[in-house]
Amino acid sequence: MKRKASAVWRGGLKDGQGAISTESGVLKETQYSFSTRFENGVGTNPEELIAAAHAGCFSMAFSAELGKAGLTPESIHTSATITMEKTDAGFTVTQSHLDVTAKVPGSDKAKVLEIANAAKAGCPISRLLKANITLDLQLVA
Length: 141
Description:
2 domains, 30% strand, alpha+beta, two-stranded antiparallel sheet, 5 strands
């Protein structure tokens, strides 16, 4: 399975603007810029999209792990906070923190926490944040 998104950037870093689109059409030329990333401009930014992906992925992984334990969640609400800091290597995503509220009838808190930690470790986006990144580049005139 492969999923695809694209981005177009025009101009310099601080005065330029970009647009992000997804193959599904959910995002279609969604605006992003220096101000949406480092200030409070209107639009999205890569870190916000990573946070959304991590929250969504974890919620599904948590539900799957609960199911394996014979538990069915009534609801799982996950908020992911991505931290980006300036390091010696430059701006770096240094952490993704998950805040989770779950309603799991008939469950024991210690068991659910154990299951949540397994979901955190097994979530594909959690693993991606540690993955090997490959790149193909084509230059056009």
